[in-house]
Amino acid sequence: MKKLILGFAVTVGSLAFAQQTTPPSSNPVTFGIKGGLNVSTLSKGADLNDSKSKTSFNAGVFANIPVASSFSVQPEVIYNALGSKVVREYNIQGNRYVEASSRNLGYIAVPVMFQYNATPEFFIEAGPEFGFLVSARDKVESSTNNNTITRVNGLNKNDFNTFNFGIGLGAGYYFTKNLGVTARYTAGLTNVVKNRPSGSDGVRNNVFQVGLAFKFK
């Protein structure tokens, strides 16, 4: 709970700072919605040596707050579907078996992006992201001879760290005053799993995002 409060405090602090430093003649604060595709992975860890990227989605809202002629702060609140996927194939007595297992971790994320507007249409950005785990499950699809069996297993959230911290770097381009395309890579810095064996590698979220943003003007 303390970490949740910290994340929202940073967002509120950014809003307050922007309102105090933005000249009255500058562009006004704008609000918008965004969403798109996630391509996520979990860094190397136990049972993850052969993990692959998993596609999912993100969606949420944002506020864009100008603080100078070429700079703005953009706090966001988004749902972020992260995780990874493992595909294994077996041949037993001439039969081909395929097992696809995906780990699905759902977060409410609060990125706070600091944007440099190189032109009125194009920007680059960087900043921290605070994530809070809200769901954890595994999905397993086993197939053979054109038959597929799907199992979904809920995971105990107590086995995971509920707070996730990362650093994002991205860019965007607005085709019109309202509609733009965005891309961002966020590297996780905190361990996803609790109680890792001493000396073992940490398991961290990493995600590449691409999508659309719409500003209400």
TrEMBL record:
Domain of life: Bacteria
Domain Outer membrane protein beta-barrel: 17-192
Sequence intervals crossing the membrane: none
Cleaved signal peptide residues: 1-18
Keyword Signal: yes
Keywords, in A-Z order: Signal
Protein name listed in UniProt: Opacity protein
Protein's organism: Chryseobacterium piperi
